[in-house]
Design goal:
5-stranded parallel beta sheet, 4-stranded antiparallel beta sheet, RNA-binding, 17 strands, 581 residues
Length: 581
RNA sequence: GCCCCGGUAGCUCAGCGGAUAGAGCAGCUGCCUUCUAAGCAGCGGGUCGCAGGUUCGAUUCCUGCCCGGGGCGCCA
């Protein structure tokens, strides 16, 4: 409809310009839904863009445009020149009412891209997210990234992409060694062979560490992982194996067991959130299959690395970046950067048309180095995209909780999901735009009083469409087929408003997908629910089920359209759409 | 010092270069008690951090500054 109007406006503009002997291209004008409904259904700014070029007043041009547009082939019932030179247009109300049939016909597919033509394949995109190393349970910060990445993946799927969700992790290296040592220390403490460091020491390892307490050695590493889950793993090891592991090094069995237990925990958490990864990519495979050495050799052959201070450096300054970076330490061990470069090159070798990395704000500085190096190895710079998100700050009892992977003040996704459920968790995490800090009020989230919760508000709006259907069945009224009712019976202003809002859904989805900003969908759903719930509330004015069978059918059609949009939107956010609550 | 992200109503936040900047919550006033419920109408509340610039038009784009958060390692 918008497109049809645009075509008409373009024709009118061309005629207008031609009459003035102007054959320059048309300006890049907009046809948009005005903020205020007094300004009509659509508003066009073309006249203002042409004012200077034509040397005429914008309102004058808008007037001529209005005359030339006429009724745009029956589309327009009223038009007016307004403000500085807008052309505002009101469509025939049947233009809106008829759209309900389209929505019902598309059903759950409304708002999603059409299937590719037979024989054509979908473009392939890889979305890499979470990618937490198995050193502990997922934090709420990880949780935000998990939900964000999954929603972006769903939006891309809805936009016609073939999506691979990928999790990149490293279960080797220093982090994991420290993890093993931490578990071992707790194991020895449990067996009475070592002492735990004091709370004071744990709070400030540099200043308050003691080598022994009460005659027992403190073996807990100074930068060790302090969470209770470490103790749990150590205790269960002690229960299973007794003192048999006393001489086992920390990066032996302790590390293996800790990693297995923690990874299982992470996968369980993701599963609770409804998130499934297609590929878990282990960084170590890049070493074993030679991809890392190959990438390094190719960088060297391209003259992009050099040796200095016993280390190997990536010549990033030659790629326009501000400093060079070490890729192989003087110990001979690569930094995290080198495998990351090899990994990103592999992504393209695996045939993805687009590669998206979702990263927290603390990692964004690294991306340009990875991208430049991978690009020099044949990856396509323009098809490597970074989607950044800010942190989650947790507020509890009016105070901000400082989160640290190693400290005990750590709040996990599981804890929050235990209290609020996956649906509410996802809604809270996706509701706000990703480049701002997300202030997660734990008290509010934990509050069992669900009255004010936007997730429930939207879900309930959906459930009510089923409630009405149940009522209709009781009254032996069948739900209408997509074209099986007269939509022109929907004449009330609030009904037309609702249809107008529903019709916007495909645009919202497209915009959210393109900008990688799922929060637009969440806001939109709140708006739909914010029209639908009050509509149902006012049963005096517009009861769906009434004596007037034709009117009831039309309103049931509206209810179905609302249902499709809410269900589809909730699905894009990975939130359930219950039939009753 | 350099880089990234924010700064919009009391609070949490939306806002696609457009017109009189919005929502939810909180507050106040009146109604409603439901096709299961979170409802409706209204009121109050704003130098869109500050200053320039571009533009017919800037909360939106650009520059500088202020405030807040984060990052600047041969950690990941």
């Amino acid at each position: 409809m918008k497109e049809a109007l645009r075509t008409r406006v373009e024709d009118a503009l061309r005629a207008l310009l031609a009459a003035a002997g102007d054959h320059e291209p048309l300006p890049d004008f907009a046809i948009e839904v005005p903020r205020q409904k007094e300004h009509g259904d659509f508003s066009c700014n073309a006249a203002m863009l042409l004012a200077k070029r034509r040397g005429r007043k914008p309102r004058e041009i808008a007037g001529e445009l209005m005359d030339r547009l006429g009724d745009a082939g029956g589309l327009v019932t009223r038009a007016e020149v307004a403000g500085p030179g807008f052309l505002n247009v009101v469509l025939a109300s049947t233009g809106w009412q008829d759209r309900i049939h389209e929505i019902l016909e598309a059903g759950p597919r409304f708002g999603r891209a059409a299937d590719p033509a037979p024989g054509a394949s979908r473009p392939r995109v890889q979305v890499e997210f979470v990618s937490a190393n198995p050193t502990g349970p997922l934090s709420t910060g990880h949780g935000r990234q998990a939900v964000l990445g999954d929603c972006i993946a769903k939006l891309l799927e809805a936009s016609g992409w073939d999506v691979t969700r990928e999790y990149y992790f490293n279960d080797g290296g220093r982090q994991m060694r420290v993890l093993g040592e931490s578990v071992k220390a707790r194991y020895l403490e449990h067996l009475g062979r070592a002492a735990a460091p004091s709370a004071e020491a744990l709070a400030d390892p540099e200043k308050a560490w003691q080598d022994s307490v009460d005659g027992l050695p403190v073996v807990f590493p100074k930068d060790g992982y302090q969470g209770d889950y470490i103790v749990d793993i150590a205790v269960s090891l002690a229960e299973q194996e007794g003192a048999g592991l006393v001489d086992e090094p920390g990066d032996g069995r302790f590390r293996e067991v800790a990693q297995a237990v923690i990874f299982e925990n992470i996968e369980g958490t993701l599963k609770r959130l409804g998130i499934h990864f297609d590929v878990y990519f282990n960084e170590r495979s890049l070493y074993t299959d030679g991809k890392l050495d190959e990438a390094l050799a190719d960088l060297r052959a391209a003259g992009l690395v050099y040796d200095a201070d016993g280390a190997v450096w990536f010549k990033a300054t030659a790629c326009g970046l501000d400093r060079d970076r070490v890729v192989v330490k003087s110990t001979g061990e690569p930094t995290y950067l080198m495998p990351d470069i090899a990994y990103h090159r592999e992504k393209f070798r695996r045939g993805f048309d687009l590669v998206i990395d979702i990263q927290g704000a603390d990692h964004i500085e690294q991306f340009p180095f990875v991208r430049e190096a991978a690009a020099r190895l044949g990856a396509d710079r323009d098809r490597m995209e970074l989607v950044m998100h800010q942190f989650v700050t947790i507020t509890s009892g009016g105070e901000r909780v400082k989160q640290s992977t190693r400290k005990a003040t750590f709040i996990t996704v599981d804890e929050v999901v235990d209290d609020v459920g996956a649906d509410v968790f996802r809604f809270f995490m996706i509701e706000r735009k990703r480049d701002g800090h997300l202030d997660f009020d734990l008290d509010l989230a934990k509050d069992k009083n669900w009255r004010k919760n936007p997730a429930y508000y939207v879900q309930y709006a959906h459930a009510r469409t089923h409630g009405i259907e149940r009522k209709a069945l009781e009254a032996n009224v069948a739900m209408p087929a997509p074209h099986g009712f007269d939509a022109t019976r929907l004449v009330l202003e609030e009904e037309i408003e609702l249809v107008k809002k529903l019709v916007l859904f495909p645009e919202i989805v497209a915009r959210a997908a393109e900008s990688r900003e799922p929060h637009h969908v969440a806001y939109y759903l709140r708006e739909v629910a914010g029209l639908w719930n009050p509509y149902l509330q006012d049963g005096e004015r517009h009861r769906v089920l009434s004596e007037d069978a034709a009117l009831s059918a039309a309103r049931l059609g509206l209810a179905l359209a609302v249902r499709h949009v809410l269900a589809s939107g909730l699905a894009l956010l990975g939130i359930s759409a219950p039939e009753r609550m």
